[in-house]
Amino acid sequence: SLFLEGYSYSTFDFRTSGRVQIQVHADEMQGRILNGTSPLDLIQLYTEATGRMRELPPWILKGAVVGMQGGTDTVRRVWEQLQNLGVPVSAFWLQDWVGQRKTTTGWQLWWNWELDTEHYPGWCQLTEDFQSKGVRIMAYFNPFLVPTDKKMNKRRDLFAEAKSQNFLIQNKKGSPYMIPVTSFEAALVDLTNPHAFSWLKGIMRDLAVQARLGGWMADFGECLPFDSVLFSGQDPAFLRNRYPELWAKLNRELIEELEAQKQELRRNISKSHTSIPENEQGAEDGEDQDSLVFFMRAGYRDSPRWTTLFWEGDQMVSWQRHDGIKSAVVGLLSSGLSGYAFNHSDIGGFCTVDLPFLRYRRSEELLLRWMELNAFTTIYRTHEGNIPSANYQFYSSTKCLSHFARFAKIYKAWEFYRIQLVKEAAATGLPVVRHLFLHYPHDKHVQTLTYQQFLVGSEFMVVPALDKGCKQVEAYFPDQEQWQHIWTGRTYGREAAAPPSHNGAGFTHSIDCPLGYPAVFVKKGSNVGHTFVKNLMEEGLSSFQQDVSSLNHKI
User: Fold this and answer.
1) Known catalytic residue: 415?
2) Which of 96, 290, 312, 314 is catalytic?
3) In the predicted model, what is the mean pLDDT of residues 491-498?
4) Catalytic residue at 302?
5) From CA 266, how far away is CA 275, in angstroms rounded?
6) Which pLDDT belongs to residue 553?
7) Active site (annotated) includes residue 118
């Protein structure tokens, strides 16, 4: 295994069989060659060198992260529906907390970092009500600032403040470099300037405290122009790959400072024998309650060292292979090979196009299948997309809401294993969701798989339905093990008494996958699989009666 050091623009050319050609746009090329005995070994060696993700707190792994917009009343109405259905919820992610603006691509946010109290009246009471049920509120930040002359209810003009202190990335004329973003322009904060770095972090810190945030999306970071001028004097072509790491580092420093403050407050309260205020109490106490999470889409080699969680950016609301639900699986699996151990996608995708001559709208079927897919990833999080009114949402109908609830509960049913995998990832760098190649590297058919199926840890195999109108999927079972279908109990793979095949080839079977019953398997004889199916049965999610005597294998 080889990886490059430094941040210069580089290309890897894999088009010629048996050869990899590397080109680096710099005077020199530096890198490392790692020697391991298996793909799992190489990932551990690589992440040991570049840095591993820290362990996610249990609170974000226990249920859905509900991505919504629309203001206080809308959020409360949907929350009541979810409570009535018994949906396990970790957090509400309210990206429009800063207010919205209408643009050519739909509804976007005001990138002037302050709570919009007109859009979210009664925010403090909302957070208190959520906290009383052990639910966090998550928000949204990015490193851009925008002119706010058209925002009538602003209390502070951060763009003007940053411009007056030369905290924005400059163009060659010495003015803020204005970057087109749909139908408006924005400027990046120059994170190579230590004063600008601290200023932005301080603004975010104050807001996180005032709004009682449990975390946020730290969006963007990948947009540094090649012809910009930086405070540090460095070449922007070199810093372009470094900038997302600086943005991640700012967010990591911020959450660690906030966590330390919370823990110090908790210690002081404990010493004084004073009870914790009701509005600071939740369903759990201690370190987990103090832990914050931010998630990013931009990154480079060392980003896992700083970032607590990744998401895959803005897929189209489509079935496409190159930018749709299939690409979400490819990105999930390939990023896991590069140390991005905790990753996920927006349920239903994001990018919506609603023009007379071109339409990409999220269909009901696509949304339901994406729910099924993401119930077997690290995080189960929704997104309304850039044009919510053009898309089916989890709350659009009784059918959608029931499906969302069902798969939030299925996600909850393997929480025990998810926590185990998260701990393993923090210690070894191994991803939660894995390409079969990591465990079956010599299987020729496994080497041809892209998005068709994947493993969760080593004990679950998922063959998602990724095509419109899909009723069956083709599942491949490597020769070494047997796998048990979680809905029927049927066993697939090599017969118990049969010897391994001479060529190492496995077995392919057609598996029915009606809506609500994706093709998911547990390794036969697995205690993890047994517990998962048992949890499904106890929740009334599966009628399959497992033979306990066949599951006495201890892993």
Assistant:
1) no
2) 314
3) 74
4) no
5) 10
6) 32
7) no
